[in-house]
Each structure stands twice: as C-alpha cells, then as structure tokens.
Specification:
Elements: H1 15-21, H2 24-37, H3 47-89, H4 96-112, H5 114-128, H6 136-152, H7 159-173, H8 186-195, H9 197-212, H10 218-225, H11 227-241, H12 245-250, H13 256-270, H14 272-282, H15 290-301, H16 308-319, E1 337-338, E2 342-353, E3 356-367, H17 371-392, H18 398-418, H19 422-435, E4 442-443, E5 447-450, E6 454-458, E7 464-465, H20 469-473, H21 478-500, E8 502-504, E9 512-514, E10 520-522, E11 528-530, H22 535-546, H23 550-559, H24 564-569, H25 571-585, H26 594-621, H27 629-648, H28 654-689, H29 696-700
Parallel strand pairs: 4-10
Antiparallel strand pairs: 1-2, 2-3, 3-6, 5-6, 7-9, 8-11, 9-10
Helix pairs in contact: 3-4, 7-11, 8-17, 9-10, 11-13, 11-17, 13-14, 13-15, 14-15, 17-18, 18-27, 21-28, 22-23, 23-25, 25-26
C-alpha cells in the first residue's frame, strides 16, 4: 500500500479498500504522514469522510445554483413563446421573417436553460463512455415543445395534424441512417425547423383562416401537411445515397474508374439535385481525371426520363386536355432528351400557315413533378450531413469551413430553384430569340407557349450538340470546321457580354446545338446571369490571379462575399491563405511579356491557371468566407463557356488558337454592326409587305401566348 496521501479533491482509486485490509501497525505510519503533510490549520480526517464530504458539498452547491436559476430560466422560456402565440391569435397572416425571428427567440431561451446544459453534460459523458446514440433526452424535449405549443395556441390545432407530425417524426428517427443524430438535440431540431419554415407559415396561416373564416378549407390544409410525408420519402432516398461516400474514400486513390462508378451511382440514386451538381461539375471536366469526367459527361446528355404517366399528367394539368387531343405522334414513353429538370419530347401539331392547315413539328419540354421539394430536401440532406459530421468527427478548425459550405450550398441551390420557373424561362428565351433573330451566327428557338411545367417551342431539324457535330456532319476538314464553330461560339459570347449584359448560365456542349448550315442554336434558358454591377469585381479577381497578386485577389473576394465588413476585419488572414496557395501552385505572374508566357505554357498551363482560380476561391471557404450566390452562378457560367470553347480547340496548334481568338475579338464590332443593319432592313421589308405571321401554337391551340 502506498503511504503517500491523496489530495482532498482527488482521492486515489482503491485507497480505501487497500487500507481496510491492512493491520493497525500499517495504518499508523500512513496517518502520521498525512498529518505531517496536511495544512497546519486542518485537522486530520479519514480519507473517505474527507472526499465524500467535499463531493457532497460541491453537489449541494451545484444543485442549489441550478435550482435558483431554474424558475428564472423556465420563465424566460415561457415568455419567449409569448410573441409567437400572440401572432397565432391575431387575424393577420404570419410572415416567414416574423416566424423565423420568434422561433430564434424561443431557441435562445432553450439553449440558456439549465436542463439544456445538463443534457449536453450527459451527452458528453455518454460520448466519453462510448454509449451512443442517446435519443431519449432530445425526444422528451421535442415532445415538451410540441405539447406546450399545441396547448397554448389560441387556435385549435386539429388532432390529424399532430398525429401526422408524430408519424413523420417516429418514421424519420427509426431510419438506420439517421440514428445517432438525435442526440444533437436542439441543433437538429432548429435545422429541421429552418427547412420547414415556409411550410409551417403556410400551415399556421391556413389555421388562422380556418379559425376566423371557413372550416371547409381543412382538406387543403391536410394536403399541405401531407407534403411532409412525401418529403420523408425524398430525404430517405437522398440520405441512403450518401452511403456511397464511405466506399469512395475507401477506393484506391489511383483507381479513377472505380471512383467514377461510385460517384455515378450516388448521383443517380440521390436524384435531380445531385444530377444538377454533376452537370455543373461536368462543365469543369478538363480539371478532373478522365475517367470521372467521362462518367459525369453522361449527365449532360441524358438522365433517366420521367415516367409516361407523369408526362401525361403534366400536359393535362397545363392544358386541360390529354396530349393526343393536342399533338400528333406524341410518345410519352420516348423523350428525345432527359435532364435533371425535365424531359423533352418531339411531336407535331396542326397549324394554319397562310390559310392552309399543316402539321408542324414542335418541341415540348415538360418539368418533373415535385422538383422544388427535391431541391429543398437535397439542401437539407447536405446540411444534415455537414452538421452531423461535427458530432461524429468533432474538430474546431472544421467548424468555419462547414458553416461556410452550408451557407454556400444555400446560395447555390437558390439559383438552381430559379431554373424550375418555366414561365420565367420562357420569357427569357423569347427575349433572346428576338435578339438573335437576324444574326447569321446564332439563333434561339422561338417559344410558342408556356405554363408552370410545360414549354412549347420551335423544333430545329437536324441539329446536334456541338460536341457531336464533327462526327455527325463529317466535314471535309474537321479541324477547320471546329475552328469555325469556335469562332461562332466566341462571337455569340461577346454579343451576350457586351451588347446585352446578360449571359446564358449553362452553356455546356449539351446546350449548344449546330444545324446543317453551321449556325448555333442555344437551348435551355432556365439560368441566366445579369452582368450589371458584377463585371468590375470579377475583372479585379481575374487580374489578381493572372498577375499572382494576393492583395488584388483578397480585395476582390471580400467585395463579392456575403458579409464584406466581417471579411475585411479578417483581411490579413485571407491574404495569407491566398498567398500560400499561389506559392504552392507555382503560378508565374504575367507581366508585359504575358503573350509569350501564355504561349510557352500552352493549354496545360492555361488549365493550371484556371484550376488555381477555382482553388483560390475554394480555400476561402476553409476560413468561413461565403461568396454571394450570383457570383457563384457567374463563375459556373464562365467555367462552362471556357470548357466548351476549350473542347473545340482540342488538337489545334497553340499559335493558331491564339490567332483565331484575336481575330474574333478584333472583328466583333464590325460583325455585330452588320447583323444589326441586317435586322433593320428585314424589319422594314416586313413592315412594308405585312406578311402572315407564323405562330403555330397561337393559331390552333392558344395558350399563354394568346
């Protein structure tokens, strides 16, 4: 037995049992040693009594402090419910901003409550003992919040809604992929509430209307509540798809083919949200391993189409009639193209052309059902994964990065959701069709009519996407043919950039069609990027990257961030990160002799510089810097354009590619003026002759266009 006494606050394990077994002669020296080393004013006492007494005193003190704080904290929680409950009782509708503010107040009070802190303590203890997951405390808390909200609501909450919520909650938490998340408690609860804030506001306002006006709207309310059940199927599928992340990281880092196959499986199972992300990634295929780029390129062409039943239902919903009453040859089983947003079909319809009825081919683009929920649940699934990663692998340095990634995904998804608005897409496409009507280089298919889920437009016979044009048309000189297409493509981009200050947001090869005459036809106008006010920061960023100036890069990134003031306070940290990246990539600054430098580097060097641009922006996320969504989509647009142009110049000598680009830029003003004069002349001739307008869908079917 050791004769060294333990300190009063840290009793040694097994001290008491060992002493109990010793003789009186053995105990005496220990007691004398303890007496000698104890403070002079402290009377000697047995170890068990001393340590037990101290623990009792500390426990009593903590209990007294918690008991004293409990009434006040509980009162603050109850008070925090007050503003929201008062809004429940009013006749005016609740807004999302008001609901979000009031819910934030409630959660601030819950976070400050002693019981919440106790839950964190228990969770930390269970984590240290490897006894997880622990869902009991969280579930009890959620039961309490729901019970109190329903009991205190001035508006009677139907039991069907309460039952629907608990059915969803228990089904969700019973999923194996989600078990272990519940012990995060309030964090997970708040995240779920944020995802459903718009829906909850709708439900609350419907309840208010029912209570003060019309009880017959209960059916409409219950349909909205059932959206949650349909979301459960979506989020379950998406979370299951995330299981491929583990085998991806377990695969051989050099086996790109195996990695590519895993990525493709995950994308297809996750659904439209990841398919859209894959299309964006495919636009940067030059920066990816060949095997992965090839797998992702598939999603630019064709993805699994919607069902024939869904396509028919969309047409009936839009036009009030089945497709066979509108079109000839419409086959819902065979779309000519399918994407993440919808499927495209070819059919014919009877129209009057100069008084004679003819069958004219038309393109029908049909949007997928429930896409808005797919994208919202996709964003929520990614956010859940990022938040839960802090639990499974907690690390302080990862927190800013994960927070920035979550906010960045929010901004990116909002841009994707804009592509779901078919009526807005039709307006943009019609505007660009008017702009390109008299161009000898590029065209945009005319829109005949549009609804929320259907766009009917002009069919361009014999056109193929620009990546397949050489193989399809078999020109005598393929290299010269591709150079000609590159010239026309660059001219089209210059028109959008300088003349219209608005860019097509997704000009990957699948959205650039070529007809037999060599004219370009731009399709899929769901995403466009206005350039007003955005050019200067982008130019500053590009200039900083080209000359390898960390100060220019830092100022440009701060200017396009979501919170420039907060970013400015961390300017030195951001600059150091960018400077290290430039040094690591070994980027040669461009000086007066930049042309020779670029020529010497060649396409590989250009790709290296472009890759560095992406790397620089990505590194800032590690610091918690979030870029505004419009600049993300501008970057996406420019990347897709550069990748398409680079694909056309593949195999072309460096000097010839550089000369072609300079010629196109220098001749652009004269060519643009020529197209403008051609348009003026055509408009005058049309006004003089007053020809019969060709408007297929307007003549026979009618619709939005009138």
């Amino acid at each position: 037995m050791s004769t060294t006494p333990a300190a009063p606050r840290k009793p040694r394990a097994r001290a008491r049992p060992a002493a109990a077994k010793g003789s009186a002669a053995t105990k005496a020296p220990a007691r004398r040693a303890a007496t000698r080393r104890a403070p002079p004013r402290e009377a000697p006492a047995p170890k068990g009594v001393r340590s037990g007494g101290m623990r009792l005193l500390r426990g009593a003190r903590e209990l007294a402090l918690q008991a004293a704080a409990l009434p006040d904290s509980t009162a603050r929680v109850i008070t925090a419910f007050g503003p929201l409950i008062r809004k429940f009782g009013g006749e005016t509708h609740l807004t999302e901003a008001e609901f979000g503010r009031d819910v934030d107040r409630i959660f601030e009070a819950l976070y400050a409550h002693p019981l919440t802190e106790k839950t964190r303590t228990v969770t930390a203890y269970l984590r240290s003992r490897n006894v997880l997951p622990n869902e009991g405390s969280t579930e009890s808390l959620i039961h309490y919040v729901v019970r109190e909200s329903v009991a205190r609501s001035p508006i009677p909450v139907p039991q069907q809604i309460v039952d629907e919520f608990w059915t969803f909650f228990h089904e969700l938490m019973s999923d194996p992929e989600l078990r272990g998340l519940a012990d995060l408690g309030l964090d997970i609860t708040r995240l779920i509430l944020k995802a459903y804030e718009p829906l909850l506001v709708e439900v609350i306002n419907e309840l208010k209307d029912i209570y003060y006006s019309n009880q017959n709207r209960m059916d409409a309310l219950l349909r909205r509540v059932q959206v949650v059940r349909s979301d459960l199927k979506i989020i379950r599928r998406q979370i299951r798809a995330l299981r491929y992340i583990k085998p991806f990281f377990q695969a051989d880092p050099k086996d790109y083919r195996a990695q590519a196959q895993i990525v493709a499986k995950m994308v297809r199972e996750f659904g439209p949200f990841f398919i859209k992300m894959a299309q964006v990634a495919a636009a940067t295929a030059n920066f990816l391993p060949e095997e992965i780029a090839r797998e992702l390129a598939v999603f630019q062409e064709d993805v699994p189409p919607m069902s024939a039943q869904e396509a028919r239902a969309a047409l009936i919903e839009s036009f009030g009639r089945p497709p066979e009453d509108i079109y000839f040859g419409f086959d819902a089983e065979r779309p000519i193209k399918s994407g993440s947003i919808g499927s495209v079909y070819l059919a014919k319809k009877p129209v009057l052309v100069r008084g004679v009825e003819q069958l004219v081919p038309v393109i029908i683009k049909i949007g997928r059902h429930n896409l808005d929920r797919e994208f919202l649940m996709g964003k929520t699934s990614i956010a859940l994964m990022l938040v839960s990663s802090q639990y499974w692998a907690p690390h302080g340095k990862l927190t800013p990065f994960l927070k920035a990634m979550t906010e960045q995904i929010d901004g990116f998804v909002e841009g994707f959701r804009n592509e779901l608005q078919f009526e807005r897409e039709a307006e943009v496409q019609a505007a660009f069709a008017r702009r390109a009507r008299h161009s000898s280089v590029w065209r945009v298919p005319e829109v005949y009519r549009a609804t929320a889920r259907v766009i009917e437009m002009e069919y361009v016979e014999g056109a193929v996407n620009i990546a397949r044009a050489v193989q399809h048309f078999r020109p005598a000189d393929p290299l010269a043919y591709r150079r000609d297409l590159a010239d026309k493509f660059l001219f089209t981009l210059l028109c959008q950039f300088f003349l219209y200050q608005e860019l097509h947001g997704d000009l990957h090869p699948g959205n650039v069609m070529v007809d037999r005459a060599g004219r370009l036809h731009l399709i899929d106008w769901g995403n466009t990027v206005p350039l007003a006010g955005k050019v200067r920061p982008v130019v500053e960023y590009l200039k900083g990257a080209l000359v390898a100036d960390a100060d220019l890069l830092t100022d440009a990134l701060i200017a396009i961030s979501t919170d420039p003031a907060a970013a400015q306070a961390r300017r030195a940290e951001i600059r150091d990160t960018l400077a290290r990246t430039l040094d690591k990539k070994q980027i040669t600054p461009l000086t007066l002799g930049f042309a020779w430098t670029l020529y010497r580097e060649g396409p590989d060097g250009w790709l290296k510089r472009a890759n560095t641009l992406m790397q620089l922006a990505s590194n800032t996320q590690q610091l918690g810097l979030v870029l505004r969504g419009e600049y993300l989509h501008l970057s996406r647009s420019l990347t897709a354009m550069v990748a398409t142009l680079g694909g056309l110049y593949e195999g072309v000598p460096r000097w010839r590619a550089g000369a072609d680009l300079l010629i196109t830029v220098n001749t652009f003003p004269a060519r643009a003026l020529k197209d403008y004069l051609r348009g003026v002349r055509a408009d005058r001739l049309r006004a003089a002759a007053e020809p019969v307008r060709r408007a297929p869908s307007r003549t026979v079917v009618g619709g939005l266009a009138g």
